[in-house]
Structure formats: C-alpha cells, structure tokens
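Record Glycosyl transferase family 9, 750 aa.
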Amino acid sequence: MTNASNAPLLIESGSPSSSFLLFALPALALTSKDGLGLVQAVILLIFLRHLRPVSRSYLQHWGELSGVTLAFLFYFLVSWVRMLADHQPLRMLDGPARLLIGLSCIGVMYYLRPRIRYFWLGLCVTTLLAAAMAAWQVFSGAEERALGFTHHAVTFGDLALVSGLMAACGLSAFRDPRLQRVDWLPAAALLGGMLASVLSASRGGWLALPLVAIPLLTYGRRLYGWRLLRMCAVTLGLLALAFALPATGMAQRVGLVLHEAQQYFITGDVSNSVGVRLELGRASLMMFADHPWLGVGRDNFDAALAALAAAGRLQPLPPMAYVNSQNDLLFCLSTGGLLDAGLLLMMYIAPLRYFMGELRRPDLGQHSLALAGVVLVAAFVGFGLTDVMFWLMMPKVFYVMMLCSLIGMCLAVRYSAPTPRRILITRTDNIGDVVLTLPLAGYLKQLYPQAEIVFLCRLYAAAVVAQCRHVDRVLTVEELGRDVARSLKQTGCDTVLFTYPRRELAYAARRAGIGRRVGSTRRVYHWLTCNRLVNMTGPLGARLHEAQLSFKLLLPLGIDYVPPREDVWKLYGLTPSRHRDADAVLAGPGLKLILHPKSNGNGREWPLEHFTTLARMLGDDPQVRVLVTGSPAEGQLLAEQAPELLALPNVENLCGKLDLAGFTALIGGCDGLVASGTGPLHLAAALGRPVVGLFPPIKPIDPVRWAALGPRATNLAAEQGCGQCADPAQCSCMRAITPQHVLDVIRSWR
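=>
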C-alpha cells in the first residue's frame, strides 16, 4: 500500500465537470462556431455564482495579477470613454467587454483547480480536429482555403498554429501514467497545427515562428531536453519537404509574396494583396502623423482612408472594402493614437512579464503552463504583423481566455488548496455503509494528523463510529436539532464530504458557510449547494468498491488516490469494545460462531433453510456454539419462518437480546460470522474477525461493490446469475451457494 504520507497532494484536484470545462476551452475553439462564446458564458456564470471567494483570490494575489488585470481593465475603460466622447454605438464596447470578461478565467481556474491534464488534452484535440477539418475542406473541394468554423481562413490558420505550438509545451503532462499511452499527442498536435495553417494558405502566420522559437527552444529545452528539440526538428523537416513539393503550393506563395513586394517598392503597384497591405500601412502612418495622440477614431478608418485618397496622398486602391491596416500596431496608432497603441502593448507585455516571472521561479509544475503562455503572447505578436488580431472577435476572445486560464492554473499550482483544519464526513444511512466509510476517515487522519475529523451519522450507528480511533468527534443527526445550519456552523468545520447525499444537510451546510462542500454530480441539489462536484459514476466508479468510492471525494482536496481493495481494511481503525452482556455470552467455552440470517431488507439474503442446514452440520462438532443474531423484529421473523433453526440444540437465539454496543462487542469477540451483505458482516470484517460474506453475482449488489474487506474475510457468490435475479423470490443465485461451501470455509479457520 502507498502510505498516506507518501501520496503526493496533486494539484489537479477539480471535479470532472470543471475539468471538462477546461478541456472544452481549447477543444471548442476551432471545432465549433460558437464554442468559445459558450465556454466564456459558463465561466462568467461560475464567476458570478462564487463571486466572493473568487474575487478574494484577485485581492490575495493582486501583486502578481495587477499588471494583467489593469491592462484589460484600462482598455475597457478607455473604450467606454471614447464611445461616449465620439458618440459611437454601444456595439463598440462588445470587444473590450469580452476582453474584460475574460479576466474571470483567472479566478475561476484558481478557485475550481481543475485537473490540468485535461487542458493539454483539449489543446491536442483542438489541433488534430482542426487539421482533420482543414484536410477535409481543402481536399474534398468544399473550400479553396481551410477556414474551419471561423469563416476566416487567416484566423483559422493562426489559431490552429498557436494551438499546436502551445500543445508542444505540455509534454510533461503526458508523463502521467494515465496519459502515457497517448504521449504521442503533443507531437501530433504540433504537426496538426502546422498542417491546418498550411491548408488555410495563411502566409503571415509563419512570421510568428521565429518569435515563438526563441522561448520554445530556450525554456523548452530546459524542461524537456532533446525530446522537444527532436520534435521541432522533425516538424521543420516536414515543412521544408512541403515547401519543396510543388503540389503544396507553398513555394509559389512565398515567391509571389516576394514578387508583389518588389513590384510595390519599384513601381508602386497596389493591384495585388501585398501591395495593398503595404499601402494600407503607409496610410496608417499618415493618419498617426496627423493625429498622434488619439488617432482618427476607432470607427473612422474607412473615412480617413478615403480622405487621404481624395487628397492625393495615397495611390488609388482597388475597389474593395478595407476596414483595417492589416497590422495590429499600425491599426492602433492610426485609429487610437499613442493611447491605444500603449494599451495594446500593455496587453502583450503584462502577461509576458507574468509568465516570464513564473519561469524564473522554482518549478512546482507551473513551468509548462508558463511556457505555453509565453508562446501564446509571442505568436499573437507575430500574427499581428500581418493581421489585426484585436479587431476580429474570435482571436481576441481566444487570446484573453487562454491567457487568463493559464495564469489561473499557474496560481493554482503554486498555491495549493488550504489545508483542512476540521473535516466533516456525513454518512447517515446504515451501519454497514458507515463502517465502509471509516477508511476515508483513517486516510484523512494520516494525511492531516493535526486536523479534526468529525463524523456525522445516525444515533443508532454512533456506538460503532465511536470505536474508530481516527474519528475525533461523533455527531449524530438527532442532536443537530431543528436548526441544522446553526448546529453545523457551530462545529467549525471548513470542509464537508457528502459520502451519503441528503438534501437538507446539503442546503444546511451552504447556509452554515462551510467553505469547501464536496458532493456528487448525480444529485441536482448538489449543483446548487456544493462548490466542489465529483463524478462518482462512470466506468471507473463502476469498478470500485463502496469503501473506495468515497475516496473520489478527495479530489477537491488535491488528492487523487484510491487505496487498493486489499489494503482498505488497514484504514478502518476500529478497536473491539467490551460490554457486560457480550462478555457473559463470550465467557462460555468453544468456538463462538455468529449466524446473522436477515439483512433488514438491504441485501439479497441466503435462504433460511441453508442457515438451518449449516447450523445442523455445525452441530456435529460439540466445540462450536452457534449464535443467531438479529433485531427483535428479525427475531420474530425467524421464529415464524425458520422455527427449526432456533430449535436446534446447538443454537443460541440472541435476537433482540443485546443493544448495539453489546452486539458490537459480541462481534468483536466472536470467532467468526456468516451473513449476507449487511452491517454486521462489514463490522466483523473491519474488526479483523473471520467472516463469510454471501452475495449474488448481480450488479450493483455483487462482491465487486459490497464484499466484506478484512484480513480474514471470504466472500462467496455464484459464478453467474440465474437469469431471474430481478425477483428475489425467484432468484436462485443465493441458493447456489451451498451450506457445504460455507462449512468448508469455517473449517479452514481452525
């Protein structure tokens, strides 16, 4: 078993829902028309729902976040003032508002602390799907240039390229054993991004590669060594091969660019794409020279361009609608002057400064994220040389959401979640379920020896929980009183784990202000009451034992660990108690064997005639005392349904004769117990007693989910279902376990 003290507190601690959101952020960017807007809306809703704690994170780390926050905030405020001063329509605030809203990603990612590996998976999926879509669009003849769902080939090519470059920064995430089978994804994503960019026929995007190569090779080489260098070398080799092949058209496009540029500078030709771009750049500089401080106005580029042409200061341009300078910085200088240009540089320099600072700090897992951030900024600077990235909506939203998500994840990595001081575990159903939750308390006590573990259960199970040395305080539902929220608040717990969901407790915990409330995604009310959600179902959950399932609730604490089944019993921490009535029963000679025929309707029961036959067979050994146990009501049922069992001379009927404390002490002192999947079975196994658990081979009540876990536990079940298991009266699965099978196990104990 991996000791709790050696199990790392992993940073990827969010619920599956938050991790899926992180996956969707890049994955929907190029593969869905409205994907980015949808994710941004969801993140904004999360931000507003958890406004106080999320806002507190900005204040807590203001020294680090001030540059980035103020850059986008100032851009919005200046845009708002200019809209009012220039009497522009409200739609002019759409883009600046999206940039401002993007800041919410920092706090949301820091607060949710999602599993970061999903971000890298999302990036890889993004570029591979973009490449596949680009190939289909071009090679099927659907489009001349690949444009994905963006309806803009240049934007599609640029975003696909930067996604592939960022994916190459996540090589460390694929060292995780869960991702080792797909450790080829970053290399494939890098190639996919390059392919999508080539098929988009975007020429300007390639100007970003030299800018990106500097940080990628400098810091990436430190992180990944020769593996990253080999990956980049292979990619460049394939690009060179594509350039050399006439069928790709790359060489022709590059040659055409050089020819058109030469024609412009020699003859002033503006009849081609490059000539027009260069003339627009010259026009932008003229506008800046005429209006250096505030420019001609963000919505006046067309009018200013026409005025320059009318004055004869520009060559006549082709009859096309030109609405920007085809260069980020020049467009800001011409339409917003030095003020807008300064804001643009702030939106590049502030995040770049933050990420460079993260790279200079000791690596706690944030270096790969920071490197991706540097690559993102450098790529957008390169893209801005031949396009206006902050004019179109999609690239600006992509930039701010990716940027701020990376910052939030860097913070989450460096500043781990607060260590719990007092943890409340709720398990308010049956004794067997309570017993199977005690290993969770044991593991938490090993991880946080200074923390207080409070266990909430029903009164009738309190005596069992009190025997667990890992539980510091037992709290019962009955003592909470009518004002449950007030009682929970008085406990002083900062974390609550709803191992058994109850609506009223969930709402009370929220009203009590318990800071970290962890629940299952299966309950709708948990989405309204819990601030941490965990998916307890799915293929992985279906294979886990009930005692293991509760460990999934530790993900929001930064713990991604589930103990092996064979080691769960080591965490029970139960010590046998003494009780006068139990001592009186156990004082007699011989092997004391408990038969517990009934299960209070909680499990599929072994036939009573089998219990009778087993007891009769045990009667052949005078050293064996058969103790039949159960509640008073179960004793009455046995008297009616199996009187011959209670009439056997070697059987002692103890049904209803011991309270729970006495019954627990009896189980702790007995020499063995036979029962179906019920509380006494799990309690005996947890106390280290020899037990035989009797189960049907049907989900979800089979041994896979409910087997007794203990050092001397044996669980029996038929090899396959009888086909009529839905009706307990017709099911023959339990009957297939013969008394002789059980007797053979009992004899092996001696």
